[in-house]
């Protein structure tokens, strides 16, 4: 008799649990820019006081009880959008927002300050879209991300004309700077006056000044995560600019409408061309000069609503040349970064989003000098190969779990020296290469 009663009680509890579970449904989808089709990073989706943010690919997910809800999607650079939903089943809902520059808005004065910074579990994070950064006065006509973040509280520059920055007392070398998940070791052009980030190719910049999320590893000072544009999926767009220091040109557009797109952006300084007319051919210094250039490229393809592939890359160089005909002395000093990133997004279900990433990045510095029949060359560099996978799991409401793993292979070349005197070649085996593996697993639980 007792066993029969326990079975009935167990079935009753199980039925109650199943009924409760059946009354919960999930809304998921992407938040995008309606003019370009670009995903919007860090958009806030608010439903009856519960909020969730879109991730770096614009994906969001939130689970609620069945019923009618007022939903609002907002972002500081876009016009907010609201609608009423009747949640009676799982729903896939994409939102397309208009940029604020594309619409005339009224001025809203509020007596209550926004308290997201104290309600959000992530502390010290500031997201800046490229539209916000362009509102900052530009030095010599060049919109500079690193100069813009130096105006934020807790951040100061590392000296006049220097692309480095200090965050809350940390040194410039204690900042993690990433471009599409690739570590950038050298962030400055023109000996530090300008950053390597071409504003025409950048979509969003996130600065984390404290409590760095687990996926970035143990960082002492700050994380600066820079994301490139995906490319306009609606139409072809060409833009450019001519400044006092450099000129730039960007082309973006659909490869296949609403399916694939690309962007190519290039920038080059013409300091060498401006200075050249003032140096006569008879001058001992004719042929000396300096220039830098950047090339950003990215393409993406959407296989289905659940799978999308991204391929992006950056290549930049500074080149300094010095000539002295009187002393028969020549010196060439090139240096710069190269990065490549391949990413695959996959939506397993309405609550689980995954991103698999392969990254290659390379930094090289070289010094070469020659006088008469004597030549020397010095070189150093860093190469990394990284594979990682990240999962975003949204169990319920404003609850988000992020977990994954990363493996990085480092190759350090502190110095390589070689030389030549007439027919005698001096090339010792002195590369002193250092290799290392860095592996990590992480999990973080964000529950507002």
Features:
single chain; Ferric Hydroxamate Uptake Protein, Chain A, domain 1; mainly beta; 9% helix; 2 domains; 28 strands; eleven-stranded antiparallel beta sheet; 5 helices; elongated; 448 residues; five-stranded mixed beta sheet; Immunoglobulin-like
Protein architecture, described:
- The structure is a single chain.
- With 448 residues, this protein is mainly beta.
- The chain folds into 2 domains: 26-102, Carboxypeptidase-like, regulatory domain (Immunoglobulin-like), CATH 2.60.40.1120; 125-447, Ferric Hydroxamate Uptake Protein, Chain A, domain 1, CATH 2.170.130.
- The protein is 9% helix and 55% strand.
- It is built from 5 helices and 28 strands.
- The strands form 6 sheets. Strands 18, 19, 20, 21, 22, 23, 24, 25, 26, 27 and 28 form an 11-stranded antiparallel beta sheet that branches.
- Strand 10 (155-157) and strand 11 (165-167) form a beta hairpin.
- The chain is elongated.
Walk me through the topology:
Blueprint: H1 2-22, E1 24-33, E2 44-47, E3 50-53, E4 59-65, E5 67-75, E6 78-87, E7 91-92, E8 95-97, H2 116-119, E9 125-129, H3 130-134, H4 145-149, E10 155-157, E11 165-167, E12 175-179, E13 182-183, E14 188-189, E15 194-195, E16 202-208, E17 222-228, E18 237-242, E19 246-256, E20 260-269, H5 271-275, E21 289-302, E22 307-324, E23 329-349, E24 352-371, E25 374-396, E26 399-421, E27 424-426, E28 434-447
Parallel strand pairs: 1-7, 1-8, 12-17
Antiparallel strand pairs: 1-4, 2-3, 2-5, 5-6, 9-16, 10-11, 12-13, 14-15, 16-17, 18-19, 19-20, 20-21, 21-22, 22-23, 23-24, 24-25, 25-26, 26-27, 26-28
């Amino acid at each position: 008799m007792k066993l029969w009663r326990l079975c009935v009680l167990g079935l009753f509890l199980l039925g109650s649990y199943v009924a409760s579970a059946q009354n919960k449904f999930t809304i998921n989808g992407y938040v995008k820019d309606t003019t370009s089709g670009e995903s919007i990073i860090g958009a806030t989706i608010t439903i009856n006081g519960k909020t969730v943010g879109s991730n770096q690919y614009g994906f969001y997910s939130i689970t609620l009880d069945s019923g009618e809800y007022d939903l609002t999607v907002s972002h500081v650079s876009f016009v907010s959008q609201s609608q009423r939903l009747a949640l009676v089943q799982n729903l896939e809902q994409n939102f397309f927002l208009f940029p604020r520059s594309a619409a005339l808005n009224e001025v809203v004065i509020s007596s209550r300050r926004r308290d997201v910074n104290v309600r959000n579990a992530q502390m010290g994070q500031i997201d800046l879209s490229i539209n916000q950064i362009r509102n900052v006065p530009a030095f010599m006509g060049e919109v500079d991300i690193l100069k813009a973040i130096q105006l934020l509280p807790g951040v100061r520059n590392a000296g006049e004309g220097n692309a480095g920055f200090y965050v809350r007392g940390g040194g410039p070398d204690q900042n993690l700077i990433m471009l599409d998940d690739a570590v950038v070791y050298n962030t400055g052009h023109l000996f530090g006056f300008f950053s390597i980030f071409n504003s025409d190719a950048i979509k969003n910049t996130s600065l984390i000044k404290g409590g760095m999320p687990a996926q970035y590893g143990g960082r002492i000072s700050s994380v600066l995560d820079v994301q490139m544009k995906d490319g306009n999926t609606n139409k072809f767009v060409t833009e450019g600019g001519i400044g006092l220091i450099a000129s730039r040109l960007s082309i973006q557009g659909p490869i296949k409408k609403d399916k694939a797109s690309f962007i190519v952006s290039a920038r080059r300084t013409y300091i060498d061309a401006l200075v050249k007319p003032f140096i006569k051919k008879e001058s001992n210094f004719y042929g000396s000069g300096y220039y830098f250039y950047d090339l950003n490229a990215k393409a993406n393809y959407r296989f289905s609503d659940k799978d999308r592939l991204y391929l992006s890359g950056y290549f930049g160089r500074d080149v300094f040349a010095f000539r002295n005909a009187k002393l028969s002395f020549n010196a060439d000093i090139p240096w710069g970064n190269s990065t490549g990133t391949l990413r695959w997004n996959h939506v397993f279900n309405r609550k689980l989003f995954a991103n698999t990433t392969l990254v290659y990045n390379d930094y090289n510095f070289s010094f070469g000098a020659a006088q008469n029949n004597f030549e020397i060359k010095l070189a150093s560099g860093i190469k990394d190969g990284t594979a990682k996978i990240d999962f975003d799991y949204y169990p319920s409401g404003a609850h988000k779990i992020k977990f994954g793993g990363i493996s990085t292979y480092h190759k350090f070349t502190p110095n390589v020296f070689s030389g030549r005197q007439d027919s005698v070649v001096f090339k010792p085996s002195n590369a002193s290469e250092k290799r290392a593996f860095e592996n990590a697993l992480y999990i973080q639980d964000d529950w507002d």
